[in-house]
């Protein structure tokens, strides 16, 4: 069966323009009433990674969230709005995230329930928010961003927010490489499957995302559909990649959870070709995913990216230390210290640092390997 996807152009976060773009996207798919019924309890789940402003491009923009809320309101369903920020998150942390990201204001103005997803139930061995059972429908609002561990954070990865903060750290500890982490993310997607995903790609993030280390890029894009695998496949194509270059997409496709080939998509709205961006900056780490696994395994200790704290930028706030799944970061009198013999290279510290003080560095052999890879890609693509 074909996966239906809407691609709509939207050039700003102007309230009316975003609403019209999202409405148009959903109307192409049969209208909001084909996804949400009056008697539904709907969880709207944006990407609220950290206490970051709307302009940072790190969180789903509040006007994007408002537009989705208004559309769902038209069905008469009860709405719950919330997310679990990043890999940390006491209830107080979450309040700060809601405040700074502008989501609290949207919930107040739209008079809907702003909830915390911090209480969990166990589903197939995963601690997931109790709202999974309390709500009859999830609408996911991912942000289009690069990700140093997974290359892309899009429709599938957004559901990781259904895992309460501290349980996320346990999952990171279990997954010692990006392929294992992809399996976990796809498990969670399979368990939480949203009825609809609407991706905020109006301002996207490229480079060393998904947080302060990335750079913003106007993509003017709203993407919507019920098959997250097809949506992430389209994002990969837009980034100049093949869908299977994204490990979560590859894993989900192999499990039969959705379509990842263009021939299996029914696209409405704009032409996909108009959004393809061959010079889209990928995270530095991406080339590790392209290396043959046996070579990577052999050179595991040599070919590696690692986090390094820039002491000039570091404000000693300790957020990274709270987030590190293996307790590898500690505060010293003059600086923060990473114990590399404990580090599992998950880049959670880079993801949560509000001051872009955690840099992604290449080991000596990684510099050589990435140089060879870039020459090879250049030659292969005939550029
Ligand atoms: S590296 Fe970033 S998160 Fe860690 S203490 Fe410094 S400023 Fe805070
Ligand atoms: S130091 Fe950073 S990259 Fe290493 S395990 Fe901790 S959070 Fe992950």
Could you walk me through the main structural features you see in this protein, from its secondary elements to its overall organization?
- There is one protein chain.
- The two termini are 37 Å apart.
- Helix 2 packs parallel to helix 4 (103-110), helix 7 crosses helix 9 and helix 8 (228-238) runs antiparallel to helix 9 (247-254).
- The protein is built from 14 helices and 16 strands.
- The chain has 383 residues and is of the alpha/beta class.
- It has helices at residues 15-28, 62-73, 91-101, 103-110, 131-134, 165-174, 178-192, 228-238, 247-254, 286-290, 293-298, 319-323, 348-352, 364-380; strands at residues 3-9, 41-46, 78-81, 113-114, 120-123, 126-129, 137-141, 143-147, 151-153, 196-207, 214-225, 265-269, 305-309, 329-331, 336-338, 358-362.
- The model has no long low-confidence stretch (mean pLDDT 92).
- The protein is 34% helix and 22% strand.
- The strands form four sheets. Strands 1, 2, 3, 4, 7, 8, 9, 10, 11 and 12 form a ten-stranded mixed beta sheet that branches.
- Bound molecules: iron/sulfur cluster (2 copies).
- Residues 309, 314-320, 336, 353, 355, 357-358 line the site of one iron/sulfur cluster.
């Amino acid at each position: 069966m074909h996966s239906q996807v809407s691609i709509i152009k939207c050039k700003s976060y102007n309230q009316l323009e975003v609403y019209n773009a999202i409405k148009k996207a959903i109307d192409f798919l049969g209208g909001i009433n084909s996804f949400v019924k009056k008697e539904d309890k709907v969880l709207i789940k944006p990407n609220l990674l950290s206490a970051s402003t709307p302009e940072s491009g790190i969180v789903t923009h509040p006007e994007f969230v408002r537009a989705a809320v208004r559309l769902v309101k038209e069905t008469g369903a009860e709405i719950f709005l919330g997310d679990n920020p990043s890999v940390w998150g006491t209830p107080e942390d979450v309040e700060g995230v809601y405040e700074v990201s502008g989501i609290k204001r949207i919930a107040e103005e739209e008079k809907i329930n702003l909830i915390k997803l911090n209480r969990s139930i166990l589903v197939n061995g995963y601690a997931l928010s109790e709202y999974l059972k309390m709500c009859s429908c999830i609408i996911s609002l991912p942000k289009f961003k690069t990700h140093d561990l997974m290359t892309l954070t899009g429709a599938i990865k957004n559901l990781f927010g259904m895992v309460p903060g501290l349980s996320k750290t346990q999952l990171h500890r279990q997954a010692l490489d990006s392929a294992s982490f992809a399996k976990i993310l796809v498990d969670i997607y399979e368990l939480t499957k949203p009825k609809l995903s609407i991706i905020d790609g109006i301002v996207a993030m490229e480079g060393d995302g998904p947080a302060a280390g990335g750079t913003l890029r106007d993509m003017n894009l709203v993407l919507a559909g019920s098959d997250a695998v097809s949506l992430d496949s389209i994002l990969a194509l837009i980034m100049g990649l093949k869908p299977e270059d994204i490990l979560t997409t590859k894993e989900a496709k192999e499990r039969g959870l959705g379509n990842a080939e263009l021939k299996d998509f029914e696209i409405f709205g704009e032409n996909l070709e108009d959004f393809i961006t061959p010079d889209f900056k990928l995270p530095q780490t991406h080339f590790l995913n392209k290396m043959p696994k046996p070579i990577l395994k052999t050179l595991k200790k040599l070919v590696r990216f690692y986090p390094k704290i820039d002491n000039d930028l570091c404000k000693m706030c300790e957020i990274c230390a709270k987030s590190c799944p293996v307790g590898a970061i500690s505060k010293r009198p003059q600086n923060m210290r990473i114990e590399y013999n404990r580090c599992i290279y998950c880049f959670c510290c880079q993801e949560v640092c509000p001051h872009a003080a955690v840099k992604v560095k290449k080991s000596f052999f990684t510099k050589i390997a990435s140089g060879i890879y870039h020459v090879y890609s250049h030659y292969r693509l005939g550029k």
